[in-house]
Design goal:
- 61% of the residues lie in helices and 3% in strands.
- Strand 1 and strand 2 form a beta hairpin.
- The relative contact order is 0.09.
- The chain is globular, with a radius of gyration of 26 Å.
- Strands 1-2 form a two-stranded antiparallel ribbon.
- The longest helix has 33 residues.
- The protein starts with 14 loop residues before the first helix and ends in an 11-residue tail after the last helix.
- It is mainly α.
- The chain contains 12 helices and 2 strands.
Length: 301
């Protein structure tokens, strides 16, 4: 079959895109290391009955880092530690005093120092890697700028879309083909002429994870199609399915934007309701026509 050209060739990106993809995928791994190390630090603090993460948004904020540094240095008075809070955290000083009351000993201090040092190394590596990715992605600066007009899509997500797809939409026959390849389109099982849903489709996990991250950000936007779409689906099918559906919409939008070289045009939060009303009207008209009636639609002004 190969000799006769019956085997479809694999999807291969040009070398510059492959190098960019290698960098963006490594950044995802580093970000995962940062998340896991932060979780380990929180677990260790809870072993010492230090519930800092229950008051602060993260144990890596400026205020939390100052308190941890003081704990490592030997300060054990919760009131003194709570006074190290900065900005909006100062309004939570009574809660901080309670959260910082524990039994943080020398072993905890050594572990915390090692974990914070590792987190600092990861942050330095991420900062250097971001600069390298910015340089490597300059040939696609215009496409990245276009993609950032989509609600929820920031610089990192746009860079991943370019790195995983190559930015050239001509290599995908359609937007549906791209969505299926990425793994954000619903899987369908067909047997003996019967079609049934088959759950999630296998695809490009690097691209899918970033699209879902963008969908979560888009859900917090105001008066946008993507936020309305997720609210509508989440009420019936759950938040995870809504995020996948929004990720699918983001990728389809990116396909046509890059193909047509146009910025994102938001349909608005009312579009889904309007489409539902139009579909319902057509269904009612069809039912009346099947009963032998002639229907003339005269919409109210």
């Amino acid at each position: 079959m190969l000799e006769h050209g019956l085997v479809r060739p694999s999807f291969m990106l040009p070398p510059p895109v492959r190098r960019l993809r290698m960098l963006t995928r490594y950044r995802v791994l580093l970000m995962g290391d940062r998340t896991r190390d932060t979780g380990r630090l929180e677990t260790m603090l809870e072993d010492a009955s230090i519930k800092l993460s229950s008051v602060a948004s993260s144990v890596t904020t400026v205020s939390a880092r100052a308190m941890l540094a003081a704990l490592i240095a030997g300060e054990a008075d919760p009131e003194v530690l709570a006074q190290l809070a900065k900005g909006k955290m100062r309004s939570k000083i009574p809660d901080l005093i309670e959260a910082l009351t524990g039994h943080f000993d020398a072993d905890h201090a050594r572990l915390a120092a090692a974990m914070l040092g590792r987190l600092d190394q990861v942050e330095v590596s991420l900062a250097a890697l971001d600069k390298t990715i910015e340089t490597a992605s300059r040939p696609w600066a215009h496409q990245i700028q276009l993609l950032q007009t989509i609600p929820g899509v920031g610089l990192k997500v746009a860079q991943v879309i370019i790195a995983e797809t190559g930015g050239d939409m001509s290599q995908f026959p359609s937007a549906a083909h791209l969505a299926a390849w990425a793994g954000v389109a619903p899987a369908i099982h067909e047997s003996a002429g019967h079609r049934s849903p088959a759950g999630a489709r296998h695809g490009n996990k690097w691209l899918t994870s970033m699209l879902v991250e963008a969908a979560v950000s888009a859900s917090r936007s105001n008066n946008t199609y993507l936020s309305a779409q997720q609210s509508r689906i989440a009420s019936r099918r759950g938040a995870k399915r809504a995020q996948i559906a929004a990720a699918h919409s983001i990728l389809v939008s990116a396909y046509y934007m890059l193909q047509r070289n146009e910025p994102y045009h938001d349909l608005g939060p009312e579009w889904l309701q309007q489409r539902h009303e139009q579909t319902h009207t057509r269904r009612l008209v069809a039912q009346l026509e099947r009963l032998g009636h002639t229907v003339v639609i005269d919409p109210a002004a």
